[in-house]
Q: What sequence folds into this?
């Protein structure tokens, strides 16, 4: 479940899988997408960004741990969120790896 400080991705296309669909959704939201992929079980240490991140999981899955309480937010292919600037987050890639696209504003 996506809750504060995250917001669901701002469109009605949740569940649309794939890189092309994710790229279209991000561009429609006004950001230029960048794709990245990781293997199963890859971790990301806690960090923050100076910009707002719009992110969509295009394939596989990834769990983000958001805020000081490390609230888990699992994204499956087609799911996305808006992460406000300055929000601490970490992540763990799911059992089949993941490909995500993101843009910043």
A:
């Amino acid at each position: 479940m996506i809750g504060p400080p995250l917001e669901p991705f701002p469109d009605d296309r949740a569940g649309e899988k794939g890189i092309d669909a994710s790229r279209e959704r991000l561009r429609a939201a006004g950001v230029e997408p960048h794709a990245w992929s990781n293997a199963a079980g890859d971790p990301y240490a806690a960090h923050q960004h100076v910009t707002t991140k719009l992110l969509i999981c295009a394939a596989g899955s990834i769990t983000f741990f958001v805020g000081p309480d490390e609230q888990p937010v699992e994204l499956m292919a087609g799911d996305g969120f808006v992460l406000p600037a300055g929000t601490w987050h970490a992540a763990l890639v799911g059992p089949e790896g993941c490909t995500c696209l993101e843009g910043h504003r």
